[in-house]
Amino acid sequence: MASTGYLSRLVADVKRLPVSWGILFFCTAIWLYLNFGAHNPFNNPVWRFMVPNITAIGHGAWWGLLTCVFVHVYWWHILLNMSSVPILGDFLEPHLGQARYVGFIVVAGVVGAAMELTLSGTTGQGFSGVLYGMYGYCLARRKDVPDFEDITTPLVNWGMLGFMGLCMVTTAVGWWHIANGAHLGGFLLGFFWGMVPSARAHTLGVAGLFCMALVVVYAYTYVPLEAVQRASAGSLQAQLALGESLVQTEDNRAEGIKWLEMAAGQGSFDAIQMLAWYLATDTNPAIRNGPEAVKWAKAAYQMKPTPGILDTVAAAYAEAGQWDQAVSTETQAIADAGGHKPDWQHRLDLYKQHQPYRE
């Protein structure tokens, strides 16, 4: 009986908040496909269409500024975001109405992705920027809409704004790259939008929305071109960002390798280890280069002697046809990692059969 009652309440909630629950189901379906239906979640048609790289956006893939918000890869990412959608949607969907609510989500998603593209060179992925937009709207209108005070309590405010700050610190110190631009852009869009209906803050709200529109135009028209210009001028950060973005898709991988080689030449560890892996394992023989892969993999291991980099060295030896070194190196990598690496063991089995690894 208890389960029947819960199911009845869930069905009623879905009927009451069809947009919010529709987003939850759609994002979950995308997550399930990327993790269980695709060989590589970062290299398949769905990913390439929904999260186009900076070059693709510069060549007309404008939809990527919206579609990227529905994409999640990691389980904790979708769990955190989707658990929040019905909560915030419970306040905004009835308040705005379904049509305006959909419009709000579209605009918040585009602005958040545009801000992230402007700051980092990638759109990012995930619904958190929209969630921050929903929160920002409620925060701006809390004095005019009493119900919004329940989602903008001091505890919630400290949690939302504190988490945003923590994410910025986490990215700044290099622990984890988080789409802080999307969080900030979504929040500002929602806050300015919420100011517009207020007589005392209408002008500031309209001015803020105009600035957000300028961010979108700038991100779509100038950021891709500017990134190439900075990379060509020798910017290590731009070369790495451009290379990392382009190698994600097969059509642009050769161009991405070129930028990674430039960044590796300037001593970027991230570029060196990424370059070694693609040169050793890519499915395209035009990309692979055994001797170069060995050179860069050894350089990466000298910089950071970790089991993961040793795994890359083994893959490079295999591509170069140095099977004894590949087997011994992979064996050492597995031992150094504690022996619990099924994927590495699979690669070791391949090397023992004189077969390279392909990804």
Question: Can you summarize this structure?
Answer:
With 359 residues, this protein is mostly helical. The chain has 19 helices and no strands.
The succession of helices and strands, N to C, reads HHHHHHHHHHHHHHHHHHH
Strand content: under 5%
The total of helices stands at 19
- Main beta sheet: strand number and arrangement? none
- Helical content, roughly? over 70%
> What number is the mean pLDDT?
91
Radius of gyration, in angstroms, nearest whole number: 23 Å
Given helix and strand content, the structural type is mainly alpha
Give the N-to-C terminal Cα separation: 50 Å
How many E-type strands? 0
| Shape verdict | globular
Low-confidence stretches: none
Describe the structure.
This protein is mainly alpha-helical and 359 residues long. It has 19 helices and no strands. Helix 13 packs antiparallel against helix 14 (253-265). The relative contact order is 0.07.
Write the layout of secondary structure elements.
Elements: H1 2-16, H2 18-37, H3 45-50, H4 54-58, H5 64-67, H6 75-96, H7 98-120, H8 128-140, H9 154-172, H10 180-195, H11 202-221, H12 223-232, H13 236-246, H14 253-265, H15 269-281, H16 290-303, H17 307-319, H18 323-336, H19 342-352
Helix pairs in contact: 1-2, 2-6, 6-7, 6-8, 7-8, 7-10, 7-11, 8-10, 10-11, 12-13, 13-14, 14-15, 15-16, 15-17, 16-17, 17-18, 18-19
Structural descriptors:
73% helix; 359 residues
